[in-house]
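Late entry, evening session. Most of the bench is empty. Finally got around to the prediction I had been postponing all week. Sequence below, unchanged from the version circulated by S.P.
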Amino acid sequence: MRLLTVLLFLFNLGVQAQAQPNIIIVMPDDMGYGDIGATGNPVIRTPNLDLFSKESAEMTNFYVSPVCSPTRACLMTGRYNYRTRCIDTFKGRSMMDPEEVTVAESLKKAGYTTGIFGKWHLGDNYPLRPQDQGFDEVLIHRGGGLAQPSEPIENAKRYTDPILFHNGEQVQTKGYCTDVYFDAAIEFMESAKKEGKPFFAYIPPNAPHGPYHDVPEKELAYYQSIDLSAVLGKGNNAKHRDTVARVFAMVENIDQNMGKLNRYLKESDQFDNTLVLFFTDNGPNSMRYVGPFQGMKTRVHEGGIRTMFYARWPEQLKAGFKNNRIAAHIDVAPTLLDIAGVRSENQDGRSLLPLLKGDEPSWPDRRLFLQSHRGNQPVEFHHFAVREQDWKLIRSTGFGLENPKGDNSFELYRISEDPGESKNLAAENPQKVAELKAAYSEWLKDVSSTRKNNYAPPRIIIGAPAELKSDLSIQDWRVSADSPGWGGKGKWMVTFANSGPYQVTISWEKAIGAREIILEIGDDRIKGQLGEGATKLVFPVVEAPSGDTSISVDIGDKQSIPRFVTFTKK
């Protein structure tokens, strides 16, 4: 009898586990609200996404950050990125604090197997990598994208047959990058199915992020052959037309992969109990069609921060249902945890499940806050937006500046009636402006006090058993505030988990000539000689004390910065 009871308990436990829905997030990089037919684009070919939109419930007022890393931190944690130390997209400010609890970690505890396929952009080294933050299966590129300084030198900026990283190991793949990600994700889903486990698959392809030199050729030929004038906005010149054609080729490839994903879910009998979310990380990466809105990536006008949000879950959500309550990236993690039956803690977002189901719940009015600009910490009233259900206050002072310049006035829109932000009502409504400014200031004070030294960047840990070989790139080095772009000389803020010895290899993309190179670890200066025509300098044995320190390289000029400084624990 006791055996029968145990068997029944185990059977019921298995049924409950199977009842948990599979979860898939697809979030393309730099794709805009207007880049599918379902939102009114008259030239792009996205039949699978257009059908997906009809099969889904939709949040019609959904917001993300103006740029990618902040959105990714908000998505992973359900918290505003200013709480997570993820501030910018490069120079060591796109690293998320490892103490943050990710949705992958929470779903893993709830019995899910978890995988990421594409772009992480929240830290390339231990303990910041996705495999350190709750993901069981990892196939990603490093940094902010392929063709960026953190990619392996030998990848040579390829999107086709890219060199990626599978569970921390460098691998050569075959095919166009987006195809590779979706194929790997489907293989992961099939493996989870065979194991009888629900899965969480996060598919954030780096497409259609630039550069645009390597795009699907057949699709590119089509978009170069047609009239794109209806979607070009104000940039109707040959270069802009070519850029948009290349972006659309990448978007159509994403659409094809959505079709492939749909076929797999149906053929594997997982379609009905799989929640698939589709949205983008920010506005489009060029000025082009954005529906009734204005703006693009990096802007705080609607075109830069508003995206489509489709949720398809046939067993639970009504196809074609639309909800106009304001929502944002911070709401995704609470929603997924709600669906999985996991308690949410310390999150800024709310579960959208009641809204998606149309349950007409008690839903108090709220305010959403979106802000991003260059630098090490937010500056009050610099490049921000506050969104209420009816009103929106912005100060568009420029993402590329660490501090605003000039007298940039506040703009107020009754956004529910004026989604194109054509009529600034700030002068007519000073009380509403003051009210929203005060709410923003209170919010900024709150998120800025989340932890001690709230805006200090996380440290990379070198020599830990989980990563015995650490490639340091300029993606994560720290440079002076007045250094433009990636900077000419910087330092990596690190913690040595174990004292030396280490082998250190400094690598360049091409030879920089014979010269003395100095490796700096804290106050220690270790000299080496780079040979004429050489692209690598190896220090066979370097002693490094355990604990916090910095690493930099003195190369004699700022034009010959290395691609990687690699520490390998001996």
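Two things to note before I forget:
Confidence is low (pLDDT under 50) at residues 1-18.
The CA atoms of residues 390 and 416 lie 5 Å apart.
Will write this up properly tomorrow.
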